[in-house]
Amino acid sequence: MQKALIPVLLASLAAAVGCGHAKLTESQEYYVGRGVAANAMFDSKGAYVGLYDKDANLEEYVAMVGLSVALESDRPETFKGYHFGVVNSPDINAFAAPGGFVFVTTGALKQMENEDELAGVLSHEIGHVNLRHPEEHANKAADQAGVMDILGTGSHLASLGLSIMGKSSQADNLATLTKGFGSVLDGFTKELIVNGYGRESELAADALGVKVLCRPGVRYNPHALKDFIARLPKKERGAWSTHPELDGRIQAIDDVIKTQGAVAATDPVRTARFKAATAGLRGQ
Amino acid sequence: MVFTVPALAFLLSLLPAAPAQDEDNSLGAKKVNVQTASFNRVPSTTRGFIAEAKLGEEVSVQAYEGNFAKVKRSDGTEAYIAKSALIVSDKYVKGPSNEKEMGQMKAQGYEAGRFDPETEASYKKEKGPEMAKAFENVDAWEIRQAWTTQRATLSRKMDEFRKAGKLAEYSSVK
């Protein structure tokens, strides 16, 4: 009976699913994003630092600035929406994880002078999410960890209402998936959060980020991103020091701005609310 | 029933692309592929709010305007929704989004085979209490930001924020 069923099942599957390489689904990207978020709460020495959750107003303010950009971007919706977090770290950094999880450190916020700089940094990270850089990395890492076949099997057989694995296979799969999940997260934690996605991807995220800042539904000052990165002393650039060579990066941002027509200036009312929102961080 | 290894290997070789989101511009039947999205009267996520979109809800795409699709809903009304929230209906694969759904889907034959709540729970167990604490922090953070998923409220808050900050339609740059 089983032998007779197999060819029929294979034929049905072939017809139903076609051929190609599996990719993580939106919901799987979300779980990878949560995992990256959890791992981001440890510093480079493995000590727990957590999110800066002492000031709910600051967190909400950062989210409002981020959403002002993200919801007008090319990818306004992710599986459970964008989340913006403040990591309790003196490092000057910002990074994005799959599924629209975006982080900025308290160290970076302290270095910023106004809301438009914050919007610029977040827009760069949203650019990565729009261009699916975190997702591409997660897919590649899952593939390298050898779990993509299992992920594909679970997704598609479940969608077809089929169940083919015994209990021991399921347990083996879970163990393999857990190992693969850890490998994917390790890649983010040990490499991408610190080093970024490489010169080409960083410049692409800058360019898209700047364009989104200039859109009629946004209107932040696009010059603020380069103001922020240009002001950082080399020794304090942290992760930003590994972003594309600074002068070339600033020139590239300028070149994009020139194509955008009239752009907004930094408005004092936004600077005032930025200073009010971050006063606790600065001990004011 | 358990397949032999060669049969399973062959099955795996047939597996298709399962795109995280729809990247084509085809018209016709598509499903909402995200948990938080909205239908709006205009091509925007925070202006002209009509209703929350439900995961798995089917719509018929009539046209595209930039990053938005103009769709007809099952009740016949027309609305806009972000392209990134949609996937071609026959590529839609629902996954569990929490422990409760995980149990329900398992009862319907869902097998361990994705990065999902079960994988996350196994990972936390393997990594120990410090990682479990970090995930608790992520959970608390998501709960604190739950207001971002309530689109009617979000639309109102975003408008107030833009107005106070002289952004978008309130900017002097037109």
Task: Sum up the structure in keywords.
heterodimer; A: 284 residues; mainly alpha; Zincin-like; three-stranded mixed beta sheet; 12 helices; globular; disordered N terminus; B: 174 residues; alpha+beta; SH3 type barrels; 2 domains; five-stranded antiparallel beta sheet; two-stranded antiparallel sheet; 5 helices; 19% strand; flat
Mind explaining what this structure looks like?
The complex is a heterodimer of chains A (284) and B (174). Chain A is 59% helix and 5% strand. Chain A is mostly helical and 284 residues long. A 3-stranded mixed β-sheet of chain A has the order 1-3-2, sandwiched between helices. Chain B is α+β, with helices and mostly antiparallel strands and 174 residues long. Chain B folds into 2 domains: 17-94, SH3 type barrels (Roll); 128-174, no CATH class. Helices cover 34% and strands 19% of the residues of chain B. The longest helix of chain B has 16 residues, at 129-144. The termini of chain B are far apart. The chains are: A mainly alpha (284), B alpha+beta (174). At the A-B interface, helix 1, helix 2, helix 3, strand 1 and helix 7 of A face helix 1, helix 3, helix 4 and helix 5 of B.
How is the topology of this model organized?
The complex is a heterodimer of chains A (284) and B (174).
Chain A: H1 2-17, H2 26-39, H3 56-70, E1 83-87, E2 94-97, E3 101-105, H4 106-111, H5 115-130, H6 133-144, H7 148-159, H8 167-195, H9 199-213, H10 223-231, H11 246-258, H12 268-277
Helix pairs in contact in A: 2-8, 3-5, 5-9, 5-10, 6-8, 9-11, 10-11
Chain B: H1 5-13, E1 28-32, E2 38-40, E3 49-52, E4 58-65, E5 68-72, E6 78-82, E7 86-88, H2 99-107, H3 117-127, H4 129-144, H5 151-164
Antiparallel strand pairs in B: 1-4, 1-7, 2-3, 4-5, 5-6
Structure summarized in a few sentences:
The complex is a heterodimer of chains A (284) and B (174). With 284 residues, chain A is mainly alpha-helical.
